[in-house]
Amino acid sequence: MNKQFDRYASLLFFLIGSGFMWESKKISESAYGSVVGPNIFPFALGLILVILSLRLFYETFQYKNEENENATLDYKRFFIILIAALLYALLLEDIGYVISTFIFLIIGFQTMEKGGWLKTLLISGLFSFGVYYLFVVVLKGSMPGFPAWLGW
């Protein structure tokens, strides 16, 4: 861990999360045929990002100085995750939430820790289907589930 990088990153994430929360207030509170409005999800994600950024900022004060001097940044993993996130955002509408989230999680898990394919596939699949089921079936929201060419 790099103390200086983590502090700047936490401040940046705090600003991004605050921006999500601020801008989500401009979205209408309800959608036709949906109990959950389109403003809930961005606001919740912004709130989570703000809370996690505050925790990261707090944890930077707990770092030991000896460990921070030898830390190096892992640019390769960062760019793999960044490109995967950009592709996820671009392909979400085309291939649907479930498939795009499943693929993004597989790439993310394997980038962070190689191997453990069974665990990776199981967690990615359960999370993708679970969130989709929770949001669409339980909360009566709407999101792109599967591509139309699959016929589901």
Explain the overall architecture.
There is one protein chain. The protein has 152 residues and is mostly helical. It has 2 domains: 73 residues, no CATH class; 78 residues. The protein contains 6 helices and no strands. α1 packs antiparallel against α2, α4 runs antiparallel to α5 and α5 runs antiparallel to α6. It is globular, with a radius of gyration of 18 Å. The mean pLDDT is 83.
Write the SSE topology:
Blueprint: H1 3-24, H2 40-59, H3 65-69, H4 75-95, H5 97-112, H6 117-138
Helix pairs in contact: 1-2, 4-5, 5-6
Short key terms for the protein model shown above:
152 residues, 70% helix
Mean pLDDT across every amino acid position: 83
String of helices and strands: HHHHHH
Low-confidence runs:
none
Q: What is the distance, rounded to the nearest whole angstrom, between the alpha carbons of the first and last residues? A: 45 Å
Q: Helix count, per DSSP?
A: 6
Class computed from helices, strands and strand pairing:
mainly alpha
How many domains, in number, for the residues? 2
Gyration radius, rounded: 18 Å
Give helix % range.
Answer: 55-70%
- Strand share of the residues? under 5%
| Overall 3D form | globular
Count of individual beta strands: 0
* Main β-sheet description: none
